[in-house]
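Weekly modeling sync, notes
Attendees: S.R. (lead), two postdocs, one rotation student

Agenda item 3: backlog of single-chain predictions. S.R. asked that every request posted to the team notebook include the full sequence so nobody has to chase files. The rotation student volunteered to paste the first one in as an example of the format we agreed on. Action items at the bottom.

Example entry:
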Amino acid sequence: MSLSFPHVNYLAILTSAVAIFILGGLWYSVIFKKPWVRLMGIPEEKMKEGSGAMPILLFMSFLCGLLISYILAIVVNHFPPPTLARGVFVGTLVWAGFAAPTSFATAIFSMTPKPLWFINSAYNWVSFVVAGMILSVWR
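Predicted structure, as returned to the notebook:
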């Protein structure tokens, strides 16, 4: 049995990874900064202490977005026709089937506050939808 990956648009993958990265920056530093910091239970001063590692953390986060975008591009190819609405559907499907339940199960056992899980999981959902839209329409 031969397994081959479908053709993907690498520029669209890079663009969606950048969009995920920018969304993450806005999500955690502008939109939900105060509740996220409060729910994390880590004083803001302590978070600032770790800012020396920030370039590495940001780079790793970008690589995660790149991997998400690449795999999502493959999945999008299996759900024709490539439309904006189909990108929203596929992004939501992948989030609802994989990201949301696995992160929720982890949150349950790690006793993560549900509002914190919601902030983090909603970021994943929105980023999957944005990436799905980019990857669906930019072939």
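Discussion: group reviewed the output briefly. Residues 10-137 form one domain.
Action items: rotation student to repeat for the remaining queue; S.R. to check formatting next week.
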